[in-house]
Amino acid sequence: MALLRAAAAADLLRRHRRAPLPLLLSALSPPPPTTPESCPDGPSPVAPYFAPPPPPLCRRRRSWPPPPPPPRVSSSSYVGRGILLPATFSIYSPLSTSSSASPDGSPDEDSSPPHPSPAAAPPSSWVDRWLPQAARPYAMLARLDKPIGTWLLAWPCFWSIAMAAMPGELPDMRMLALFGCGAVLLRGAGCTVNDLLDRDIDNKVERTKSRPFASGILTPTQGVGFLGLQLLLGLGILLQLNNYSRILGASSLLLVFSYPLMKRFTFWPQAYLGLTFNWGALLGWAAIKESLDPAIILPLYTAGICWTLVYDTIYAHQDKEDDLKVGVKSTALRFGDLTKHWISGFGVACIGSLALSGYSADLAWPYYPFLAAASAQLAWQISTVDLSDRLDCNRKFVSNKWFGALIFGGVLCGRLVS
């Protein structure tokens, strides 16, 4: 080591013959030891004898502005022969994300990036793909992108029309088409009335704050005009029926317009919805027979009301937290932890009423296997639904279109065979 220091001093003398003596002496002396007092941040991990040589002495004045300070060396780095080598190599990028790791070394999927990427757009419906821009808010207002409500309104009509058919014959296809179109229009009108009256509530509920009125896409004046158009088209369908059915159909408007207010006054708005949504069970029979047969129609209407209490209570569990904040009522809040017991009872009442109605209508034996399959579907809904999971509640609610289809298939087959 002494020889190496002597050789270094001789080389320094050759390069800087005019350098002052104190500088030469400092070059020949070993570097001072590193102590905690000399390094407030702790001892440096830099090996003293492998540090890079000092820059050559220059008599020129330092330029202004001064060069930026060198990067701070962290304790996780070390210096070897003048080269800074980090203990862990990483490439920094403004778009890179930091993620925490689990104890086994795998990335933590729950870690969130500091610069989150834009949220993926939800899958577009046929309304977004096919309708012009100006018509989309009105289609969303009428829930044309969510046909499940139309199915739930149409199935009791179809059950009644099929029961009213003559034995061994298919139901009246013209009536099925008229009631199908009427279900689309009446359901749309009901949604328009509901959104008009609830626009101050919908913007406080997570699931409904993007509706046209709550989000401000449509004004109440535009909504009233659209409601008038829907009712006018519905009147055109109602005029195709007999006089008895016209009076019966027009009386349902009272239920349609008053239903949205029920959640403010009672914990049973789902029962009131059952009265409204299953009015077609009365109207379908009247459109064919020009009268009502209480032995057949009243059990059918009761079955529809109990069915509605099942599926709409499940549906209401999606909004129970928001309903508590806003102050509206529902059977989901009324039943609470006993919801499955309540809807099980309504499910049994629904199946029993359907069996009684089919028996009174003299439906043949094929009706009952379909009724058993529908019972199994309803039991599956009630037993497997996770009332704390909004997505599962919505899935079970949507599956009720198959319950309605099974009952319709049973009535159709039972009437054809009888």
UniProtKB/TrEMBL annotation:
GO CC annotations on file: mitochondrial inner membrane
Keywords from the UniProt entry: Isoprene biosynthesis, Membrane, Mitochondrion, Mitochondrion inner membrane, Transferase, Transmembrane, Transmembrane helix, Ubiquinone biosynthesis
Cofactor needs: Mg(2+)
Compartments where found: Membrane; Mitochondrion inner membrane
Gene3D superfamilies for the chain: UbiA prenyltransferase
Pathway of action: Cofactor biosynthesis; ubiquinone biosynthesis
One GO process term, biological-process aspect: ubiquinone biosynthetic process
Cross-referenced PROSITE patterns: UBIA
Enzyme type, top EC level: transferase
Region named Disordered: 25-75, 96-125
Reaction(s) catalysed by this chain's protein: an all-trans-polyprenyl diphosphate + 4-hydroxybenzoate = a 4-hydroxy-3-(all-trans-polyprenyl)benzoate + diphosphate; 4-hydroxybenzoate + (2E)-geranyl diphosphate = 3-geranyl-4-hydroxybenzoate + diphosphate
Family that this chain belongs to: Belongs to the UbiA prenyltransferase family.
Purpose of the protein: Catalyzes the prenylation of para-hydroxybenzoate (PHB) with an all-trans polyprenyl group. Mediates the second step in the final reaction sequence of coenzyme Q (CoQ) biosynthesis, which is the condensation of the polyisoprenoid side chain with PHB, generating the first membrane-bound Q intermediate.
HAMAP family assigned to the protein according to its UniProt record, in alphabetical order: UbiA
Name of the protein in question: 4-hydroxybenzoate polyprenyltransferase, mitochondrial
Organism this protein belongs to: Oryza barthii
